[in-house]
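TICKET: design request
STATUS: open
ATTACHED STRUCTURE:
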């Protein structure tokens, strides 16, 4: 894997406000996070619901304007003002697989119209025949058939709809795919099929993926590096194997302790670790993301880092 960053996120902030005057509330959905994703890598972003994972993905793809910070895609700043041509470059180069395969497909469009839209907008085909050839190829790549091209989304199962969503994302040959919890809305029996398909496509097409999920066992199976997110912050970042073998932050340990295993004896005596955010006192010392082991970063204050190092 080359160490060429496809995506660089620097001090990204995404704040939302609600209410007016004295009742105005600022929600720090994403609060000063930084990470890189390298070519051919799958970067997993995990955390509980509401921690800011999806907002991070949507801000990167410019569905939201960032409050502060910078996003670089293939070395170019994409978080500021962009020309029409630059916007087209970003929408072609970064594609998203959405969480809900039903809501993300237009019910009035056929499968060929849904998938072909990206080709038309980005002018990636020179004729109707060429477009249909590309659509048929990508349908077969994701495990569907060319007969499916003339059907509407309501005629498919959840797993098939997600395959259509994957085909739509891959048709423009993107440099980065943001997979936003792509299997959480599917039946458990279908989840493994879609995950295996994504894994196969990742190797076959050399995809670079930002994989957003809350299921740690899935993320370990699919990711090269993992960032653990909590209340808008990245608390720990490391290689997948490193993170699972040597978790350091109490929140990461809490998440890992919640993973069930198909072993009745283990489950009978499994001890859950509960995370209490009040154990951190950041009033005196400012916390920051620090490299505590090679490639292993932790969000902590100086005194906490000293304590963590004693236990390494």
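STATUS: resolved
RESOLUTION: sequence designed for all positions
ATTACHED SEQUENCE:
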């Amino acid at each position: 894997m080359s160490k060429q960053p496809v995506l660089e996120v620097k001090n990204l902030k995404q704040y939302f406000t609600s209410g007016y005057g004295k009742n105005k509330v600022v929600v720090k959905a994403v609060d000063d996070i930084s990470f890189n994703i390298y070519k051919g890598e799958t970067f997993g972003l995990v955390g509980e619901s509401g921690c800011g994972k999806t907002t991070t993905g949507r801000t990167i793809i410019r569905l939201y304007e960032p409050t502060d910070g910078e996003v670089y895609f293939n070395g170019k700043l994409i978080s500021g003002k962009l020309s029409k041509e630059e916007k087209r470059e970003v929408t072609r180069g970064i594609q998203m697989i959405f969480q809900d395969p039903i809501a993300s497909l237009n019910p009035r469009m056929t499968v060929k119209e849904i998938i072909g839209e990206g080709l038309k907008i980005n002018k990636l085909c020179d004729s109707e025949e060429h477009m249909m050839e590309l659509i048929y190829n990508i349908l077969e790549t994701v495990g569907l058939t060319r007969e499916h091209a003339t059907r509407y989304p309501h005629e498919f199962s959840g797993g098939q709809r997600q395959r259509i969503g994957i085909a739509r994302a891959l048709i423009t040959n993107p440099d980065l795919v943001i997979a936003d919890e792509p299997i959480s809305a599917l039946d458990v029996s279908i989840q493994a099929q879609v995950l295996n398909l994504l894994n196969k496509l990742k190797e076959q097409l050399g995809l670079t993926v930002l994989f957003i999920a809350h299921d740690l066992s899935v993320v370990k199976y699919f990711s090269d590096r993992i960032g653990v997110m909590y209340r808008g912050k990245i608390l720990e970042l490391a290689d997948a194997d490193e993170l699972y073998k040597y978790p350091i932050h109490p929140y990461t340990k809490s998440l890992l302790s919640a993973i069930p295993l198909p072993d009745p004896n283990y489950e009978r005596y499994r001890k859950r670790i509960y995370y209490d955010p009040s154990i951190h006192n950041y009033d005196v010392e400012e916390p920051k993301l620090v490299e505590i082991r090679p490639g292993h970063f932790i969000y902590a204050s100086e005194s906490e880092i000293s304590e963590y190092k004693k236990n390494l």
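CLOSING REMARK: The domain at 5-310 is CATH 3.40.50.300 (Rossmann fold). The chain has one domain: 5-310.
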